[in-house]
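> example.struct
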């Protein structure tokens, strides 16, 4: 955004210190990108009036002029410009003047006659006006007036980088408010405008059909206007120095109101509106030629302005149509001033391939309370510049969402800021920002102004206070924190432990986009949760991921395509099952693929289910009772090589080999093994119990059972553990055998049991324990001792 420094100065009763103001704005987040003088350095040039003009006796193309430069005696100046004439007022460089690029004016003899100065063109003083000849000044120019003062050339154009959340600063009024809050400079009283809206517009239909997207719409009709003239110099100057190109008085007035107040406006040719106006949602197949010549095919449900025959005449908040635009021949107009919801305008200009200052402001949010002031100011200027008379007005006002109220404790705020700021100063900062502050007990209830769409939560208010107070005023100091021990109980430490453990086992961490292609979603997304689709996809990434399996598999494909034949990667990130925080849990997923990292004494082999299972055991065995149960119905995993991960009785995730049906569409000849857990289901609280190491020896016993092949070995171990034999230290499987003399439908499972007690175990005790185990296996699984 560009502004004229001198014009901005006019909003204040005090003279602004430019260096201080620009530095404070930059430090507060409104970065100054550039500062450009409106004219180069020069001196000694004043307003001169030509009081006589004769041809040079010895040169056909030179004129001998007498010029009143405000210094008493007229100056004799020889001039070669074709537009010099008696009575014109022009820039006059007197002897001793210094023009741009250090060109000095001195007495000079030209064809036998002396010249005591120089009459200047716009180019010669760095103010090009497109005229081949002298820069002609208005008749109100007083001879002798410094030309820099008369043309307001001691000005500079400041360009600001306004962040998307600060749409309230896209105007002179908004910047002035911000400067007042940051520096304390006093603003002039707000100008009061005459009310032109009292009379209703007769014989003119008004159809506001989408008031949920346009809560406030005001129109004002004016007739007998003259648009076939040039805009006044003051208006042209303000627009040009604000980065806008003057076009016609009516367009220039609406643009001026926009940069002054921040309210985009539009002027329709009233005679081309078919006796009515309205706004509604576009229908499929509608077309509109825009002011810039673009042929727009309207998108269904986009907000459009329509005429009395329900034909689109503008894309609301973006750009008007060519057919209803004002021209030099326009004599009656309808001024439009509206508040369109930011979400109704956001992205529309880009979608239609156009750019407009109106859309830039509307999609960031304009003041919903300023439409009347804006249209009254515009009407005042139209009547002053173009003449005419007000015919009547139309209104549509719907109650907008009540302004948010934010409760905050100043004591908590100061703890976060780390600086002692007086309560009175905080109240003043917020009041200067336009906030209402109400004391309720030991808290303050803050109501932000309607134009601050970015102030929604407690942290926003804290940010505003520290921003205005000044980050540079906060002294560096050690943080004061409540002392507590960091341990595995900390969620952050828990995540760090998992990451470190995986890295120590040869894994690399990956960080992926939260968006995935629809093709990956169809193959690998979690079918238990609906996919969240993006309205504006980024390069084909059309949906939010609802698991991390898509990411690690995509990483595997990427590495295989680059020649890698083995891989271990993991990702710790959020997945998206809904819009609430609870529906966006933190998942941990890991993938192993290819050859097992064999030592010098081992043969190389492909990784298998048990490699992954041991990794999962290393990660989670410290968090309580870890179990694995059979899983056959997950469409992403091999039905015979998959298990649920159970911690303390809670199903927290899954591990297994990718389903064979996915190999071909993913281009994978060898299928990877993957685990995925929902970390929110794993409680970080770990209780430790200490006990003395038994001084009595352990006793190992082996039992082998013949079982049906359909029996899950994990179920046998669970059943044995349920016996709660106090002296049973551990039970493990060390062999599974099929074939030989066993029937095809049976298998032999060998179990190792380790017993230890607080005394030396007797043979009778051990035999009794083994008998309990044999009975349990026989009764529940029809197992026979081999």
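> example.seq
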């Amino acid at each position: 955004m560009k502004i004229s420094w001198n014009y901005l100065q006019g909003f204040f009763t005090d003279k602004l210190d430019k260096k201080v103001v620009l530095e404070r704005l930059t430090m507060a987040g409104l970065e100054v990108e550039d500062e450009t003088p409106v004219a180069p350095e020069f001196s000694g040039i004043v307003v001169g009036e030509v009081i006589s003009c004769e041809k040079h006796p010895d040169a056909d193309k030179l004129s001998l002029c007498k010029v009143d430069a405000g210094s008493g005696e007229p100056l004799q100046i020889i001039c070669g410009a074709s537009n010099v004439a008696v009575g014109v007022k022009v820039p006059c460089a007197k002897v001793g003047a210094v023009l741009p690029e250090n060109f000095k004016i001195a007495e000079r003899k030209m064809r036998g006659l002396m010249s005591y100065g120089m009459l200047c063109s716009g180019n010669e003083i760095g103010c090009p006006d497109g005229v081949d000849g002298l820069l002609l000044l208005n008749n109100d120019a007083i001879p002798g007036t410094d030309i820099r003062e008369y043309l307001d050339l001691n000005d500079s154009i400041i360009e600001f980088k306004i962040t998307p959340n600060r749409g309230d600063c896209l105007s002179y009024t908004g910047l002035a408010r911000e400067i007042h809050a940051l520096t304390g400079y006093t603003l002039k009283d707000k100008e009061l405008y005459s009310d032109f809206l009292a009379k209703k517009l007769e014989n003119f239909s008004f159809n506001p059909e989408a008031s949920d997207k346009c809560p406030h719409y005001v129109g004002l009709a004016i007739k007998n206007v003259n648009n076939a003239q040039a805009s006044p110099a003051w208006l042209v100057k303000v627009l040009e120095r604000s980065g806008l190109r003057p076009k016609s008085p009516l367009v220039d007035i609406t643009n001026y109101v926009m940069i002054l107040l921040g309210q985009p406006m539009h002027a329709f040719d009233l005679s081309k509106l078919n006796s009515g106006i309205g706004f509604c949602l576009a229908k499929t197949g509608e077309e509109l030629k825009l002011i810039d010549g673009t042929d727009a095919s309207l998108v269904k449900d986009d907000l459009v302005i329509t005429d009395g025959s329900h034909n689109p005449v503008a894309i609301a908040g973006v750009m008007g149509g060519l057919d209803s635009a004002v021209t030099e021949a326009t004599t009656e107009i309808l001024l439009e001033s509206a508040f369109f919801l930011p979400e109704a305008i956001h992205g529309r200009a880009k979608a239609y391939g156009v750019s407009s200052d109106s859309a830039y402001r509307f999609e960031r949010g304009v003041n919903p309370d300023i439409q009347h002031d804006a249209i009254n100011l515009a009407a005042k200027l139209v009547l002053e510049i173009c003449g005419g008379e007000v015919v009547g007005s139309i209104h549509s006002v719907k109650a907008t969402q009540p302004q948010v109220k934010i409760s905050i404790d100043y004591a908590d705020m100061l703890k976060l800021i780390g600086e002692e700021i007086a309560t009175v100063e905080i109240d003043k900062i917020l009041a200067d920002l336009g906030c209402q502050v109400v004391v309720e007990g030991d808290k303050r209830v803050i109501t932000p102004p309607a134009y601050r769409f970015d102030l929604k939560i407690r942290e926003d208010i804290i940010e505003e206070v520290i921003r205005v107070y000044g980050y540079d005023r906060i002294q560096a100091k050690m943080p004061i924190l409540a002392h507590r021990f960091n341990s595995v109980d900390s969620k952050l430490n828990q995540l760090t432990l998992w990451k470190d453990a995986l890295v120590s086992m040869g894994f690399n961490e990956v960080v992926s986009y939260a968006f995935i292609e629809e093709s990956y979603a169809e193959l690998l997304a979690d079918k238990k949760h609906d996919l969240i689709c993006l309205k504006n996809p980024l390069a084909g990434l059309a949906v939010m991921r609802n698991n991390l399996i898509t990411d690690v598999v995509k990483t595997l494909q990427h590495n295989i395509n680059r020649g890698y034949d083995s891989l271990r990667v993991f990702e710790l990130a959020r997945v998206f099952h809904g819009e609430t925080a609870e529906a966006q849990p933190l998942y941990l997923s890991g993938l192993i693929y290819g050859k097992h990292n064999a030592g010098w004494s081992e043969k190389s082999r492909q990784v298998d289910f048990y490699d992954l299972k041991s990794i999962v055991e290393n990660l989670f065995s410290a968090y309580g009772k870890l179990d694995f149960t059979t899983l056959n119905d997950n469409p992403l995993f091999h039905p015979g090589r998959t298990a649920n991960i159970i911690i303390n009785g809670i199903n927290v995730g899954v591990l297994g080999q990718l389903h064979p049906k996915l190999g071909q569409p993913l281009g994978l000849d060898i299928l990877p093994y993957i685990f995925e857990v929902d970390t929110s289901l794993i409680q970080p609280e770990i209780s430790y119990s200490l006990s003395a190491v038994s001084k009595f020896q352990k006793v190992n016993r082996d039992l082998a059972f013949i079982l049906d092949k359909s029996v899950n070995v994990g179920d046998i171990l669970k059943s044995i553990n349920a016996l709660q034999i106090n002296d049973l230290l551990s039970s493990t499987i060390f062999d599974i055998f099929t074939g030989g003399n066993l029937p095809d439908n049976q298998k032999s499972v060998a179990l190792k049991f380790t017993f230890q007690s607080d005394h030396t175990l007797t043979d009778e005790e051990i035999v009794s324990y083994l008998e309990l185990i044999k009975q349990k296996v026989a009764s529940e699984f029809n197992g026979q001792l081999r």
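> remarks
The chain is about 25% helix and 30% strand.
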